[in-house]
Design brief:
Number of strands: 0
CATH superfamily: CHAD domain
Distance between the termini: 22 Å
Number of helices: 11
Number of domains: 1
Shape: globular
Largest sheet: none
CATH class: Mainly Alpha
Mean pLDDT: 86
CATH topology: CHAD domain
Order of helices and strands: HHHHHHHHHHH
CATH architecture: Alpha solenoid
Radius of gyration: 21 Å
Helix content: over 70%
């Protein structure tokens, strides 16, 4: 099943179908030892999508249940973060080299890359020893909790309120980042953009042509903000008094190089942000709710998504409800 809510289903059932599919994909991704790095990346994306789904459904859920699920998801994701974060910073160094002029800052780039590779190797060793198996166990434990996922009332209205809340928060963060131009504010905006991007994916069936374009716009903006965040992390790393990656002159040149890249990324992100968040939150949410209401009663409802064939080491959620999940 793709990351889409089906307008033909009762809302609680549609939410559960998506959640079950994401948990299955995450578990299956981690159970493939030959390519742990790709598997961890895939699993972490599933966990982020689950969090965005819960944020969308939040107004229709009891707060203790929501908090329990989001805390458990965040805990699993945190345990998987180390190996992926090291690789992300290596990728950021590669992008910095491609998109900025070379200079005396090359020394720190090579030193940082070597340090990050050692860090990634250590994290991957931990992943093989215990982290992946622990994450898979905890994903299985999440299944019964998501089997009871429901919203009240069982229609689109709670999601409309959740969409309005998330969109308003992202729009507010965008304006705050424009005023302050600080890494923390931009990172907060990035988190809002990521939720918006994934929530648009969930709601795409109500008007595929329009919302697919919005998904791509938000995804592109999220990537820019992610690159900006990675540069900020690199700047923090080279500025730590306990870390030395080159001579003072080389380090100063590297910092200037990072600031130049920041300037380019933030200029482009602001342009994209103005387009994406030009509409106010209430009319935006009301418009999407109208699309969904039309799709849910239209004669050309989308066909139910086909569940993918499951790997042999993944337990079906129907089986999880019968108690067989504990045998895997």
């Amino acid at each position: 099943m793709s990351y889409r809510l089906d307008p033909a289903l009762p809302m609680s059932e549609a939410l559960r179908c998506v959640a079950f599919a994401e948990l299955e994909i995450a578990h299956g991704s981690l159970s493939t030892p030959p390519d742990r790095h790709t598997g961890v990346h895939s699993a972490r994306k599933c966990l982020k999508r689950l969090r965005s789904l819960l944020m969308l459904a939040r107004p229709g859920m009891p707060e203790p249940i929501l908090r329990n699920l989001t805390d458990r998801i965040a805990s699993i994701a945190k345990g998987l973060a180390a190996a992926r974060d090291a690789q992300a910073l290596i990728d950021a160094l590669d992008k910095l080299e491609r998109h900025t002029e070379p200079g005396p800052g090359q020394g720190p780039i090579q030193s940082i890359r070597g340090w990050l590779r050692k860090r990634r190797q250590a994290a991957e060793q931990n992943l093989e020893n215990s982290t992946a198996s622990e994450a898979m166990r905890r994903l299985l434990e999440l299944r019964p909790a998501f089997a009871g996922l429901a919203v009240y009332p069982d229609d689109f209205s709670p999601l409309a309120r959740g969409l309005e809340r998330c969109y308003r928060a992202a729009r507010k963060s965008f304006k705050a980042s424009l005023d302050a131009d600080e890494a923390d504010d931009i990172h907060e905006w990035r988190k809002g953009v990521q939720h918006h991007w994934r929530q648009m994916q969930l709601l795409t069936p109500c008007w595929p042509s329009e919302l697919s374009a919005r998904v791509e716009a938000a995804r592109s903006l999220s990537q820019l903000l992610g690159d900006d965040h990675d540069i900020a992390v690199l700047l923090h790393l080279v500025s730590m008094p306990t870390m030395t990656f080159g001579t003072p002159d080389e380090t100063a040149a590297f910092i200037k190089r990072c600031h130049r890249r920041h300037k380019v990324l933030r200029k482009e992100a602001r342009i994209k942000g103005e387009r994406l968040f030009i509409e106010k939150a209430r009319p935006f949410a009301e418009r999407i709710e109208a699309y969904w209401s039309t799709a849910s009663v239209a004669g050309d409802k989308p066909a139910p998504a086909v569940r993918p064939q499951q790997p042999g080491n993944v337990v079906a959620f129907g089986e999880a409800r019968t108690g067989r999940a504990n045998q895997s």
